[in-house]
Amino acid sequence: MSRQPVYVQHCMGINGLEKIILRENRGFSAEVYLYGGQVTSWKNELGEELLFVSSKANFNPPRSIRGGIPICFPQFSNLGSLEQHGFARNKLWTLDPNPPPFPTNSNNRAFIDLLLKNSGDDTKNWPHRYEFRLRIALGPTGDLMLTSRIRNTNTDGKSFAFTFAYHTYLYVTDISEVRIEGLETLDYLDNLKNRERFTEQGDAIVFESEVDKVYLSTPTKIAIIDHERKRTFVLRKDGLPDAVVWNPWDKKAKTISDLGDEEYKHLLCVQSACVEKAITLKPGEEWKGRQEISAVPSSYCSGQLDPRKVLFHY
Asked: Where does the record place a coiled coil (predicted)?
């Protein structure tokens, strides 16, 4: 008898923190820590790592983990009394033992649902009741899918507002050989210039220095082309109108304690986000935001993806 594949495995990770390993038949895998509800690894069928995690990353609560896909909620940035990028990435999430199934037309088996609810120590700085359900799924062809559902469960009749981002760290071979397509001609806020608004001029985004930009009203599909590896990441998103692009470059990297001095060369953050205009929920209302990433061989021709070689399933 052939053994049934184990699609979801519960085990211990670094420093005894609980983690879940998702696996698909062809060899794709992903790892998720309950601390932060954070994806920390996503590998293709060859076992190649597709996400960046710093060699100096802290797996010591309450520090956040540098790399993977941190969840930024209820804010993206460092405004007000909340810590930078909110508290969701510093919380211990719980695993839902009986998650709702996927639609019947889906053959996803490698998935988990994580839950985060308000706790006493949140209310000092963010006095609201909420339920955050995060579904992380690994598709049969290796796509990594994250779906967030955030519900206002306040009983005092109060609405709340929040901003949000999937702070995705992609592993790239050499940042100076990477280009992003899909954001050209768009307006952006430049965080290195007091959030001043500009319009992107290039026919694609390339990297020669520190970048920290919030692109506005972005398309649902963005392509990140890693020339050296002949690989293209295709990022699809829904409910997340903004896209944040970040790389610290050499000087800034040296000031980040949990990042190696030269590691900026191998990371690129392209974040599906809703940061320019906050989302407001009345009691009982729910918001949904979704991100799906695929890694496909690059068919690079005249600066464009060859549509015949890349099929998108959403």
From this structure: none
Q: Is 66 annotated as a binding residue?
A: yes
Q: Is the pLDDT score of 298 beyond 90?
A: no
Give the CATH number of domain 8-172+235-295; options: 2.60.40.1940, 2.70.98.10, 3.90.180.10, 1.10.8.140.
Answer: 2.70.98.10
* Residue that is written with structure tokens 């280009």 in the block: 179
Q: Is 84 annotated as a binding residue?
A: yes
The per-residue pLDDT for range 158-217, each reduced to its tens digit, is 999 999 999 999 999 999 999 999 999 999 999 999 999 999 998 899 999 999 999 999
| pLDDT (tens digit per residue) in 20-31 | 999 998 999 999
Identify the H or E element spanning 213: strand 211-215
Domain ranges of the chain: 8-172+235-295
The C-alpha atoms of residue 150 and residue 114 are separated, in whole angstroms, by 12
Ranges of beta strands (E only) in 49-102 are: 71-72, 94-95
Q: pTM of the prediction?
A: 0.92
Q: What's the full length of the chain, in residues?
A: 314
Identify which of 158, 97, 149, 95 has the alpha carbon closest to the alpha carbon of residue 123.
158
Kindly write down the DSSP assignment for every residue of 222-265, as one continuous string: EEEEETTTTEEEEEEEES--EEEEEE-HHHHHHH-TTS-TTGGG
Phi, psi values for residue 129, rounded to 5°: -100, 135
CB atoms within 10 A of CB 170: 22
